[in-house]
Amino acid sequence: MSYSRANPSLRYSELQQLYRTMHDRGETFLRIPPEKTFPGKSLFAHRVDIKRMIERTGARTILDYGSGKGQQYDPRPIRDETGALWPGIPDYWDVDEVVCYDPCYEPYSKLPQGKFDGVISTDVLEHCPQDDVPWIVEEIFGYATRFVFASVACFPASKRLPNGENAHCTILPVAWWRELVSTVAANHPPLVWQFCIFSKSGDGIEQQRIGNA
């Protein structure tokens, strides 16, 4: 069966409710308070890669798809590669607008309207049901006019859902992601895109990049 935004899987709806609970109550197994549960700060590890794509494409508007609580955009001085100090991520990226979307966090739960120069999605897709990932990836690409950047983990999370399940519900090999994303990207030929896919190897984590960036 093919699922879509208009017809998501039952699992998608179930997970949304579980994630809403975590946003409201925190991660109880690790005793993480609500304000520190899915704050959105996993984006910091990718800020340089995203800035490069912004500079390459001349993007001025950004959609953060699956932004969590959006704390990554709170005023917070950061230094760039040259040592220069910036008051926050939007200034560092030199963009006009960053829009947050997260269906499980009420302040950002409204589906965005229109298009954005760039769409980013970090530490999101592995939290989505496998049956729904194809339409979600298509939706991400559909919002973009210049570039798409995403990161995906192919291993279990430290967090658990309120029902005891691992927070990463879709753990699949790099080859699966490469085939899916390449197929979707082929429908959007003007876009520059990059997916950073992380997998565990021995005691370390390996990163593979796919895309045309």
How do the helices and strands line up, and which of them pair or pack?
Layout: H1 10-25, H2 47-57, E1 61-65, E2 78-79, E3 85-86, H3 89-93, E4 97-101, E5 116-122, H4 133-143, E6 144-153, H5 174-185, E7 192-201, E8 204-211
Parallel strand pairs: 1-4, 1-5, 5-6, 6-7
Antiparallel strand pairs: 2-3, 7-8
Helix pairs in contact: 4-5
Can you tag this structure with a few keywords?
single chain; 213 residues; alpha/beta; 5 helices; globular
Number of strands: 8
Principal-axis shape equals globular
* Portion in beta strands: 15-25%
> In percent, how helical is the residue content?
25-40%
Q: Could you give a short account of the major beta sheet?
A: 6 strands, mixed
Poorly predicted segments: none
Short description:
It is built from 5 helices and 8 strands. It has helices spanning 10-25, 47-57, 89-93, 133-143, 174-185; strands at 61-65, 78-79, 85-86, 97-101, 116-122, 144-153, 192-201, 204-211.
